[in-house]
Write a structure and sequence with these properties.
Helix content is 19%, strand content 43%. The longest helix is centred in the middle third of the chain and has 13 residues. A hairpin with a 2-residue loop joins strand 2 and strand 3. The strands form 2 sheets. A 5-stranded mixed sheet has the order 5-1-7-6-9, sandwiched between helices. Strands 2, 3, 4 and 8 form a 4-stranded antiparallel sheet that branches. It is built from 3 helices and 9 strands; from the N terminus they run E-E-E-E-E-H-E-E-E-H-H-E. The protein is globular. It has a single domain, classed as Nucleoside Triphosphate Pyrophosphohydrolase, CATH 3.90.79. By secondary structure, it is α+β, with helices and mostly antiparallel strands.
């Protein structure tokens, strides 16, 4: 870790489960093909809940409504000296926008079971991918009311 502190990068992600399968994106990141939950960064002035819904739509063409917080995670990516703080949400799908263009780095979307995700662990963008799935499966859900008014 560098001697000079760099503020963390705030990200959001969605654990979306349907019939025992999880919606994940296959994307190009840092020279590798990886799997991740639909995820991304906040836009200026955007709440974490709004950012999560937007990122899911942009990366998967699915309309998503966050309903609970699965967890808040910290991950340090040494090659770029970046600390990420990730807010991960669970919620409901409200439909899909067929034919919608996805973000340019997205190669494909997939619905994988936990076992299929475990079999592909070497492709996970970060260790948080499996942690978020496992926390979701263990029932971790926190009400969106944990956020101060106006910040969710």
């Amino acid at each position: 870790m560098s001697a000079e502190w760099k503020p963390p990068s705030v990200t959001v992600a969605a654990v979306i489960e349907r019939d025992g399968r999880f919606l994940v994106v296959e994307e190009d990141y840092d020279g590798a093909r990886v799997l991740n939950q639909p995820a991304g960064h906040l836009d200026p002035g955007e709440s974490v809940v709004t950012a999560c819904a937007r990122e899911v739509l942009e990366e998967t063409a699915h309309r998503f409504t966050p309903e609970s917080l699965v967890g808040i995670y910290r991950w340090y990516y040494a090659p770029r000296d970046i600390t990420f703080i990730r807010f991960t949400f669970a919620g409901r799908l409200d439909g899909v926008e067929e034919g919608r263009a996805l973000d340019t780095e997205i190669v494909a979307t997939h619905w994988y079971t936990r076992d299929e995700m475990t079999a592909r662990v070497k492709m996970h963008r970060t260790p948080l991918v499996m942690s978020c799935i496992d926390d979701y499966l263990s029932g971790k859900r926190y009400p969106l009311g944990v956020f101060a008014s106006g910040y969710a």
